[in-house]
Amino acid sequence: MPSYKSLVDKQRTYFKSGATRSLEKRKHALNQLKAMIEEDGEELANAIFQDLHRDGHMEVGMTARAIDECLQKLEEWSAPTKLPSGGLLDPNSDQLYIVREPVGVVLIISPWNFPLITSVPLVQALAAGNTVILKPSELAQHTAEAFERVVKKRFNEELFAVVNGAVQETTDLLSERFDHIVYTGNPAVAKVIMSAAAKHLTPVTLELGGKNPTVILDDADVELAAEKIVGAKMMNCGQICINPDYVLTTSNTKPKLISAIREAFEKQGELRDNAAFARIINERHFDRLKALASKTNGKLAWKADGEEDRIGKFLPPSVYEIEADDELMKDEIFGPILPIITVDGIDQALHFIQEREKPLAAYIFSKCPEATRRFITETWSGGVCVNDLQTHAFVSNVPFGGVGNSGVGRINGKYSFDNFTHEKTVLIRGGVGKEIPLNKL
Ligand code: NAD
């Protein structure tokens, strides 16, 4: 049984020595990461291709942008705030500050579907002056091994280490004490992570998935909705946490939508030869999706050409017309299957969504401001995108995270940086503070 005690102890000793704290040290770590992405990005992109049969450069580019953003904003995000000392305090001799300090040793556990970008919180954790242990998913094995190789080349394990392994290794890691844990994956395992963290009162950020609804009203641009659905299902073969999981539309719009989806998919050509169409991650997930398709009581409305191939993990996209209690509505689909449920309009669509777990993303296609307003205010979700799918998750300067069953906390840029930073109130009395320069706190 592996023990990670010595690694965690080593990182904590390094952290406590103050070695990670200065802006110079943090910038140095970010520049090392930048060099890693510039020089070894190709190796990482190739590994992603081997795991998922899709281009990995987008993930490399997004990671590079996250590093650049941290380098640019580091001073602003880390700076202590001096507050006016009034009320109880003596403005002549008292100083009041918020000092931003790193939390310590951070554990990041990432999934297989976007193995590099789901690991990006490591960038902000290092930027905030912490040490990091990254546990990539064993399901994206090539990427996990490449990650370990390229990190080992540049980083001392006191500051940043990659630990590879499966459930046993993760369980052993979780028996150690961390100062923050970020887990990205499914809600069932998230409960295991949260229980382990609770033993040490460790704060967690949980980035999970769920069943994301897409409402398409009668006044919607149906061609646009179909194009967006096809774009989303093409991306990573629908294996994305913010993917449109199911559609709610009226009996009037449904036939137009199905034929527009068929046309939009046909424009993509032969999917088997299309480098933009990823493969299912492994045979277990291929079998899971096949079992779903065999258990549905829905009507197959359309299926793309191409023979299913378990060894090659190629699964052609399909669209089903289903009832609300269908097997396809039980769990997150996470693949190229799209169920459509008929509703009679916005009221029934809102009710349908309100009755279920809060999803990570909720989508609506409509030209009606009032229906859109009601969708935003009468549903609960991690984020909303109107007349588009998924794009809200790719913009910077906004929080990204779920709510309820789709997650706890948020990530992205400054929001991630703040997860890994404790805002410490400091009151200095007796005039001593005047002698301490603000930039030394
Ligand atoms: P996975 O199977 O790769 O698991 C994720 C991580 O959890 C891995 O590192 C794995 O080793 C670890 N793990 C698995 N079982 C464990 C256990 N019993 N105890 C401890 N650790 C364990 O990935 P997955 O869960 O299949 O990922 C897909 C899910 O992730 C989907 O639900 C998707 O929606 C979600 N996701 C969410 C986001 C987001 O940002 N919200 C992003 C990507 C994926």
UniProtKB/TrEMBL annotation:
The active site is at 207, 241. Gene3D superfamilies: Aldehyde Dehydrogenase, Chain A, domain 1, Aldehyde Dehydrogenase, Chain A, domain 2. Residues 6-426 form the Aldehyde dehydrogenase domain. SUPFAM superfamilies: ALDH-like (SSF53720). Pfam families: Aldedh. Transmembrane segments: none annotated. Keywords: Oxidoreductase. One of its GO terms (molecular function) is aldehyde dehydrogenase (NAD+) activity. GO terms for cellular component: cytoplasm. One of its GO terms (biological process) is aldehyde metabolic process. It comes from the Eukaryota. Belongs to the aldehyde dehydrogenase family. This is Aldehyde dehydrogenase.
